[in-house]
Specification:
alpha+beta, 10 strands, 18 helices, 7-stranded antiparallel beta sheet, 3 domains, disordered N terminus
């Protein structure tokens, strides 16, 4: 190897090393959080499979004779760099992992210019199965599939004469109630089945059409897996009085059904091999047009290597195009700055002053003056049935503390709560959307001579067909009423990436700002939309609750 080539390889190695140092701490945080979710605990196996496939196929790959695809590298590398910058500045682990995946795409393009690695694109696509959709969208997808699983399971149980009652995602049997989300939970889940299906497609180097149909069948077999698992749990309870919904029995049942579903995926793969097999023509004049089209369709995206690829050697004297020196130096400088910033964040967290990271809150402690007896209903219809004080993490999106009153009127149940403290306007609808609710409508209701601007939002849960209603306002102990934002998503993005959330300066901003915003809310869950009479009663009761809270807290001020 020429000296210049060694220098180029060294520069590329330094860039990869700096990028790894910048992203590694956030990646560790990302995977540690992922491990807490039981349905994502398969990721170490998938990560090991990706590393094994990449390493083994790199060693066996023949030399490549194609130049580096710089346009594709820039198309993938620029978003990776921007995502990494945002991830480091705001300490967002999911953005760091997104940057790592796109960075691995750039690395794959560089490796492909040196060797022809079999199924390299498929190996890179497997990395996306480790990416968790942010803001609860993965849970929304799962809740929709759980609703479908509930319906199919109920029809199957009816077919076999199993007495049960279906209510939302709950299956009720004589003497036992099963929640579908619990019966379908655990490490053996839809995500595990999709990962196994994608692995088969990549490991066996299936063409693109074949791989797409096989992965689509993974959704079917995952649904069948959950339906069969629910059926086995129900039959075991009804016929043999065995509880397979908890503990090791639930895990072994899930594993046995997963093996059965995996066998179904393998059989689907064999069927697709038969159906998508290229056609041969017995004519000596060649293939007819239909056969050519079919063979092109069946082999589209085929990445399998043949003996010709191994026999073909790189041309002597062939020169690979490299990145310009100024580009490599500039990129290395950017990654170097990110490494320094990441190191500064880690040092600040480990040895920084505790005073600079303190969150200053209002001197008023609502729990001292707001008790169950301090709040009374407006009329005789509503009754207070319970009162609770709740404490959470200081970083909880719901607020660190809450005082919760449970109201009841007939079949209606309403939660009235005071949540505190926040730094500024807190968009409560975002919290409910992150917990699985779908926002239908949001409106601002001016009241009391425009002093209050109550936000009213209607929600729904498609899986359980529940309807939700929330009313909320925010104010300060000084009596100032906060005006609501106009656009929910704009407020969400503005809050996540506000200047005060920069990792290096977050402590300084926190020391200067006062967290003194309190939030009042009313929340109801019903199976049907509220009538006009019930809606008027809820609004009146919430307004009375708001007046009592403000009178006590502002008066104490």
């Amino acid at each position: 190897m020429k000296p210049g080539a060694r220098m180029k390889m060294g520069a590329e190695g330094v860039i990869v090393l700096l990028a790894s140092l910048a992203v590694l701490p956030l990646i560790v945080t990302y995977f540690s959080r992922l491990w807490r979710e039981e349905q994502y605990q398969y990721f170490p196996i998938l990560l090991g499979v990706i590393i094994y496939l990449g390493w083994s196929r790199w060693k066996e790959a023949p030399p490549a004779s194609r130049p580096m695809r710089f346009r594709w590298a820039l198309l993938c590398g620029l978003p990776a760099l921007l995502s990494l910058i945002v991830a480091v500045l705001y300490q967002v682990p999911v953005m760091a992992f997104l940057s790592a995946i796109m960075g691995l795409g750039v690395l794959a393009l560089c490796l492909a210019s040196r060797r022809k690695i079999e199924g390299l694109l498929g190996i890179w696509l497997l990395c996306w199965l480790l990416f968790r959709l942010p803001w609860g969208y993965d849970e929304k997808l799962m809740s929709g599939l759980q609703g479908l699983t509930t319906i199919v399971s109920s029809r199957m149980l009816d077919l076999f004469g199993c007495l049960h009652l279906t209510e939302g995602n709950v299956l009720t049997f004589p003497g036992k109630t099963f929640f579908v989300d619990e019966a379908c939970s655990g490490i053996i889940s839809l995500r595990t089945m999709l990962a196994a299906t994608a692995f088969i497609a990549v490991f066996r180097n299936r063409p693109m059409v074949h791989a797409g149909l096989l992965i689509a069948s993974g959704f079917f077999w995952a649904g069948m897996m959950n339906v069969i698992r629910i059926g086995i749990i129900a039959v075991a309870h009804l016929k043999f009085q065995l509880d397979l919904s908890e503990g090791w029995a639930h895990d072994m049942t899930g594993l046995a059904v997963f093996i059965l579903a995996f066998a179904g995926v393998s059989s689907t793969d064999a069927l697709l091999c038969c159906l998508l097999k290229p056609m041969r023509s017995g004519s000596s004049s060649g293939l007819n047009p239909f056969t050519r089209v079919w063979n092109w369709f069946a082999r589209f995206g085929d990445v399998s290597l043949t003996q010709e690829h191994y026999d073909k050697k790189a041309l002597p004297g062939e020169r690979q195009r490299v990145w310009p020196a100024w580009f490599r130096w500039g990129l290395g400088g950017v990654f170097g700055v990110l490494v320094v910033l990441q190191g500064g964040v880690m040092i600040q967290r480990s040895f920084g002053s505790s005073v600079s990271s303190e969150v200053k809150t209002a001197a008023l402690e609502p729990s001292r003056v707001l008790t169950r007896e301090a709040i009374t209903p407006l009329g005789d219809d509503w009754k207070i049935v319970s009162f609770d004080e709740r404490s959470r993490s200081s970083r909880s999106i719901w607020g660190e503390n809450s005082l919760v009153w449970q109201y009841a009127r007939g079949d209606l149940r309403m939660t009235l709560a005071l949540d505190y403290y926040f730094l500024h306007w807190h968009e409560l609808t975002i919290c409910y959307r992150s917990s699985g609710w779908k926002l239908d409508e949001r409106a601002v209701l001016p009241e009391d001579g425009d002093r209050w601007s109550t936000v009213q939002a209607t929600l729904e849960r498609p899986a359980s067909r529940e309807q939700g209603l929330i009313l909320f306002d925010l104010f300060r102990p000084s009596g100032e009423v906060l005006k609501p934002v106009e656009h929910v998503m704009a407020a969400d993005w503005k809050e996540r990436f506000a200047l005060r959330n920069l990792a290096l300066f977050k402590g300084a901003f926190a020391s200067d700002d006062l967290h003194d915003v309190l939030q009042m809310q009313a929340f109801l869950v019903t199976e049907e939309p509220l009538s006009e009479e019930d809606m008027a009663s809820v609004r009146a009761e919430y307004a009375h609750f708001r007046e009592q809270v403000c009178a006590i807290l502002v008066g104490e001020r």
